[in-house]
Amino acid sequence: MEPKFILTLDGHLRIGSVQMHKDLLVPNDTCIGGGFWEIDPISMKLLLSGKSYVYGKPKWNFVTGKLYVPKDYEGLRIEYNGDSFVDYVNVSEQFEISYY
């Protein structure tokens, strides 16, 4: 099991420890990328990085409206770092986040 996340077209950030990114999908999800996650307790950040072998990098620009994040991660600043500097996304600043 590895700490992985996916981003869905309807704006859900699904996070878990799974073998494959597809294990985070629920019926009717359309995955628009994924990667890996870790929590930095010192800086209070949820750090997202990398890409899914199957789904690729998260396509943040496809998300319109709110980003839905599990309540377990409320209070953490969320950032994504891809393969290069241009892939950096300050998720907490770019999106209105709704915790569920």
The fraction of residues in strands falls at: 35-45%
Strand order of the largest sheet: 2-1-3-4-6
Distance between the termini: 24 Å
Give the overall form: globular
Structural class by helix and strand composition: mainly beta
Query: C-alpha Rg, in Å?
Result: 12 Å
Can you describe this structure?
Helices cover 4% and strands 39% of the residues. With 100 residues, the protein is mainly beta. The longest helix has 4 residues, at 91-94.
Helices, strands, pairings?
Elements: E1 2-8, E2 13-18, E3 31-40, E4 45-49, E5 67-69, E6 77-81, H1 91-94, E7 97-99
Parallel strand pairs: 4-6, 5-7
Antiparallel strand pairs: 1-2, 1-3, 3-4
Record keyword descriptors for this entry:
100 residues; mainly beta; 1 helix
Quickly describe the structure.
The chain is mostly beta strands. Helix content is about 5%, strand content about 40%. The protein has one helix at about 90-95, and strands spanning about 1-10, 15-20, 30-40, 45-50, 65-70, 75-80, 95-100.
